[in-house]
Amino acid sequence: MSLVELKELVKNGKAKETEEMVKSLLNSGTNAEAILTNALIPAMDEVGELFQKGEYFVPELLVAARAMQKATEIIRPKLQEMGVKAKGKVVLGTVRGDLHDIGKNLVKMMVEGAGFEVVDLGIDVTPEKFVQAVKDHKPGVIGMSALLTTTMMSMKDTVALLKSEGVRNSVKVMVGGAPLRQDFATEIGADFYGKDATEAKNYAKFVYEE
Ligand code: B1M
């Protein structure tokens, strides 16, 4: 029973075994922060790398995410007791008119897996809702996902509204989704285009480490 074994269980998406091992580690005195920092987060980092290399596909990501979620459900209250804070806050959503959320949920999973708090606004999120969430939650990063060429332009509207509401400089804007490219992100004034969930997670880390 070790953190190395736990990392492998999460990587391989073994949810039940992950749950049992986390409980045993806690019972034997391993602290929750060590479990998070030395097993769970590195496991999700490796899952992301395997995905980028084409060795893992969406189903492997999803089962790893489920195992990660089981583990975090158990350790979250312990971390709160210990006063361990999230690394930062990220607001995420799929843009107005768009109901595709599989990619956005993968981004959420990777970003949460890296120790961030994610405020998930769901699907069909209007520019007004994104802006309100920036005002309410004060995230370091706001992330918008779009899967339709017809909904991509809502990202531009959101950036414009962030500006007119005077909060554009308080937050970094990240965009992603299959129909997007870097030139579109640049054109609408976003700070970052994430090709995949791992890039999204790395950008959140970059923003908070800056
Ligand atoms: Co729809 N759909 N769909 N669909 N759908 C596409 C996107 C489409 C390409 C299919 C096609 O025609 N070949 C096409 C879009 C064409 C276009 O705009 N050019 C399309 C269409 C037309 C439609 C409808 C209009 C169909 C209709 O009703 N006539 C309709 C629209 C509904 C709406 O949104 N208003 C529709 C509906 C649906 C379903 C509801 C049935 C379902 C969505 C279910 C759900 O999401 N809960 C669905 C699905 C599943 C797809 C396909 C098959 C798969 C999309 C997906 O989940 N990919 C898709 C065709 C395809 O891509 N093969 C298609 C897997 C996912 C992991 O990838 O989301 O790209 P992706 O996310 C990646 C990266 O892009 C990145 O990270 C992820 C992984 O690393 N990423 C980010 C994503 N968001 C990011 C944000 C970031 C950073 C990175 O920072 C914030």
Query: Using only CA atoms, what is the Rg?
Result: 18 Å
CATH architecture of the largest domain: 3-Layer(aba) Sandwich
Bound molecules: CO-5-methoxybenzimidazolylcobamide
The biggest beta sheet, please? 5 strands, parallel
Question: Which fold name is given in CATH as the topology of the largest domain?
Answer: Rossmann fold
Which regions have little confidence, pLDDT < 50, spanning 5+ residues?
none
* CATH level 1 name of the largest domain: Alpha Beta
The proportion of strand residues reads 5-15%
As for the number of domains, it is 2
Coarse structural class: alpha/beta
H/E element string?
HHHHEHEHEHEHEH
Strand order of the largest sheet: 2-1-3-4-5
- Rounded average pLDDT: 93
CATH superfamily of the largest domain: Cobalamin-binding domain
Q: Sum up the overall morphology in one term.
A: globular
- Per DSSP, the total helix count is 9
Count every beta strand, where a strand is a DSSP E run of 2 or more residues.
Answer: 5
Question: Which assembly state applies to the chains in this document?
Answer: single chain
Helix content: 55-70%
Give the distance, in angstroms, between the N- and C-terminal Cα atoms. 36 Å
Give the key terms.
Methyltransferase, Methionine Synthase (B12-binding Domains), Chain A, domain 1, Rossmann fold, alpha/beta, 9 helices, 5 strands, 210 residues
